[in-house]
Amino acid sequence: MAFALKDIQKTLEHYLLDGWLLYDFRRCNDLACQFLQIPMHQLLTRRFFYWIPRKGVPVKLVHAIEDSALNHLPGSVQRYRTWQEIEAYLKEILKGSKRIAMEYSPRNAIPYASKVDAGTMDVVRDCGVEVVSSADLLQQYINVWDADQLKTHLFAADVLCRTVDDVWAWIAQNLQIKNAITEYDVQQFILQSLEREGCVTSDAPICAVNENSANPHYSPDKNHSKVIKMGDFILIDLWCKQQSPGSVYADITRVGVAASAPTEYQKAIFDIVKAARDKATGLVRDRFSQGEPVRGCEVDQCCRNVIQEAGYGDYFIHRTGHNIGENDHGSGAHIDNLETRDTRLLLPGTCFSIEPGIYLPGKFGVRLEYDVYVHLDGEVNVTGGIQNAITCLIS
């Protein structure tokens, strides 16, 4: 942290900020705790503030009974006991500042980045400062991968691609010998395959057949699972990461039919989703190749426009993609202008999914998902493979 302080202060200067005020109470602000590298075993039962000024020495405002909570960080220490002291010390710390960053999002537009409660914001604003969101600031320090993390992502992406190929072959084999298997059986097959590769997953993968594939968050279980039959439409969504500390996820979705060819309707829906996926990816490539900024909400809208223009906008009911990190759904910029308006910049060194879908209730749903990694030099790579046609399990 001491080494990074000068870099952080340069970043604050770039954003025309007088400083960055990080606040937490009982780990309600997990982003601040991650950024400040506070160990999980560290006891945090009282409020703390950590002030990083654009120039000068940081200040740690901590409770008298937990005054060692931020000992690993540079800066002077100010101890409080009462709520009155908190307010008085904050006014002293922020004196002369006009514009500061906190984990806040105007109108809660980006709830993932909005961690500071409204009451605390009242206290801070009473100090005479304008508070702006730290969302883009944070990304640079907690969402950019190092070279080792990229390696773990590529390994996981390769595992997923090989696993889904094995799944299709296994389903086809069982259909041909008329051995009944269910969505749940496929899910367990995937889990066993990932475990053999030394990978873990946050939740069980998805195998969804026919109308179940029209539910984006459908997940089979042992007691609720369809038998897969000839002619069925099948969606498989799987994600994983290596077990080693610091590893990051990969996440893909594929669709197939237990037939020698899809129906014309299935193919038409697939082609619309594919066009939307490719349009969104093209926007990301174009912006980075031209050295121009691109925001998550812009990519979502670009993708969404394709599906809306095809007449299926009401059936694309989720965001286009999500940030990827040590959690499958990371804390960085999401590809979203539907559920939220994610105005955060897509940064070099970060990864996100692009996964548009059309979900037709009672019929089927098509979701096509791969991951996009932006290298530090701005090169844009798709990972996890690219599906350009519906997989046909019967030759």
List the helices and strands and how they pair.
Blueprint: H1 2-14, E1 19-24, H2 30-35, E2 48-53, E3 59-63, E4 76-80, H3 83-93, E5 99-102, H4 118-125, E6 130-133, H5 135-142, H6 147-176, H7 183-196, E7 199-200, E8 206-209, E9 233-242, E10 250-257, H8 264-289, H9 296-309, E11 323-324, E12 351-354, E13 357-360, E14 364-367, E15 370-374, E16 380-383, E17 391-392
Parallel strand pairs: 1-5, 3-4, 5-6, 10-17
Antiparallel strand pairs: 1-2, 2-3, 7-9, 8-9, 9-10, 11-12, 12-15, 13-14, 15-16
* Helix segment tally: 9
Structural class of the secondary structure composition? alpha+beta
Strand order of the largest sheet: 4-3-2-1-5-6
Contiguous runs where pLDDT drops below 50 for at least 5 residues: none
- Secondary-structure element sequence? HEHEEEHEHEHHHEEEEHHEEEEEEE
DSSP strand content: 15-25%
Which outline best applies?
elongated
How confident is the prediction overall: mean pLDDT?
A: 97
Range of helix content: 25-40%
* Termini separation: 58 Å
Rg computed from alpha carbons, rounded to a whole number of angstroms: 24 Å
Care to count the β-strands? 17
Largest sheet: 6 strands, mixed
